[in-house]
Amino acid sequence: MKFGITLANRGILLGLSTVPKLLALTDAIEANPALDSVWVGDALFVNQRLDALTLLGAIAGRTSRVRLGPACMGTFALRDPRVFAYEWASLDVISGGRTILCVCSGGGSGPAWNAETEAMGIPPAERRKRMIENIHVLRHLWTTNEVPFEGTYLRFGPVTMLPKPLQSPCPIWLTTNAGRLDSNQVGAGGSDFSLRRVGRVADGWMTHSVTPEGFRRSLSLIEETGRAAGRDMAAFGNIVTAVLNIQDDAEVAMADAKQYLDLYYGADYSRERLDAWGPIGTPAQCAAWIRRFAGSGCQGFTFRLATRGDAMTQLRRLTEEVLPLVQAPS
């Protein structure tokens, strides 16, 4: 398995971190061969944070090894895909071809989400459909010159976009969320419809809060759908996003993680929800949580360091105390 870190770019607005601390954490990840990727959150008017694209540009300029991407690009359906195609291709060039664009429809339910889509002139029901069309726009502009595009929401005449991404194809992954507590499906995996969409459209898959069994079932459906559509799934990627808190006392770890995540997302998470979300506890408990996914088809994890304490200490404990236990022979 491969392991990455999801930076807390929302934490800047909440007083949980600072820009220098966030970038110092990036430098430590880049310097540590046990870690292979850096991810950042993305949002607009709900769960606001530093803009993902701007932050990834800053990270690209100070790294040379780690892969870079959003976990996930929740504003993707709200952005003009013609401009975004140009911006992301430029990021891929700046980074030396290290990007993974992981997109999701974003959005939720309630007044705040409705206000966001209304402000952008996009009905909430269109976010998923626009997400898929925007993917087609990006691939069109990245692979053709002087060819018109005609979609449901966007049409334009023959144009050429430069630069093209260094990667060909430049990977675009889709996110599907696992079942939620209120649907009695925690850990079950995404819906069959959304999973089949991943298989038909995406180059990779990101998910969270899924059991190893749910992951295996979901990945099998994705791969079967992709092959049925005539796609080569050999290079298909995947990753699980998770929260992480490592302490010598498991109850201290749980209390710290809950305090952090309740503040970060403005929620009141149950213990069951947190247990499903990621490894929280002693180094041995965290390693055991990760090792459950051996043989599931999971290629790796990216961890949000969910602590009100020192994130750099959590990073050190992950690489020095947890990952050696994960990688040790059974």
Task: Provide a descriptive summary of the structure in words.
This protein has one domain (2-327): Alpha-Beta Barrel (TIM Barrel), CATH 3.20.20.30. The chain is globular and about 60 Å long. The protein has helices at residues 11-14, 19-31, 52-60, 81-94, 111-119, 127-143, 192-201, 212-228, 250-265, 271-277, 283-291, 311-327; strands spanning 2-7, 37-40, 67-70, 101-103, 147-150, 155-159, 172-175, 204-208, 237-246, 280-281, 300-305. The chain is α/β, with parallel strands linked by helices. The relative contact order is 0.13. The two termini are 15 Å apart. The strands form two sheets. Strands 1, 2, 3, 4, 7, 8, 9, 10 and 11 form a nine-stranded parallel β-sheet that branches. The protein has a two-stranded antiparallel sheet with strand order 5-6. It has twelve helices and eleven strands. 43% of the residues lie in helices and 16% in strands.
